Amino acid sequence: MSDSTFNLGTVIDDAKKVITNPVEFYRNMPTEGGYANPLIFVAVMAAITGLMISIFSIVGFGGAGAMMAGGFALAAIIVFPIMAVIGSFIFAAIIFVIWKLMGSDKNYEVAYRCTAYSFAIAPIVMLLSLVPYLGGIIKTLWGAFLLYIASTEVHQIKAQTAKTVFGILAAIGLLLGISSEHTARKYANWGEKILSESNLQESLKQFENIQSIEDLEDIDAEEAGRQVGEFLKGLGKFSKGLEDAVEEAEREAAEE
């Protein structure tokens, strides 16, 4: 693990070490050298994860395809790394305070390095997320374990203290994670239901009918009126179907 020159091979090697032997990794992790390499590590792991999100969304694994169109799915490759980099500084700040309360004398850079390299599990967690709730559970437990290792190997905090603190945080994270995923999946199902039960395809067909007219200047008034009427009729059916689907989804939610 070298902090002198960045290369993709170094990032991959570091990720493998974090995953397969986190004790050795954190025990030998440099505690200084700037933010560049750990920051790049986060960006690369997030880019890989973003690519996986895009692929799964496009092919429709785990219901993702129904909620994310192709253009938005591809945007995940760029958006996800940006969000991860910003989030890594916030997450490190929170954990830095926790480590300070636990008695650590290390600075923020050390805290950032410890949390940044924990992003090594992100691609694996993304893959496991294809199974409902599994990804969130593994991320919480595995992430807490890595922070526990960092606590004992880097911050020299007593093992029992680290177990207690990060065990409690893991339990809280599990409860919040499962609850939030349940809510997200419920509303995602609403979205799929609304789109499937409405007359969206029929309405879009009317758009296509109008767009298929090669030369609007040559169309006579009667044909133009007919095309507009067909379009408005399809749009009305779509609106009615959408309204009915929303009302049904709300009734089902109230019955739960």
Provide an overview of this structure.
The protein is an all-alpha fold. The protein folds into two domains: 8-158, no CATH class; 198-255, no CATH class. Helices cover 79% and strands 0% of the residues. The chain has eleven helices and no strands. The chain has helices spanning 8-20, 22-28, 36-59, 64-67, 70-101, 108-117, 122-128, 134-153, 159-197, 200-211, 221-255. Helix 1 packs across helix 2 and helix 3 packs across helix 5 (70-101). It starts with 7 loop residues before the first helix and ends with a helix. The model is unreliable at 62-71 and 206-217 (pLDDT under 50).
What does this entry show, briefly?
The chain has 256 residues and is an all-alpha fold. The chain has helices at 8-20, 22-28, 36-59, 64-67, 70-101, 108-117, 122-128, 134-153, 159-197, 200-211, 221-255. Helix 1 crosses helix 2, helix 2 packs across helix 8 and helix 9 packs across helix 11 (221-255).
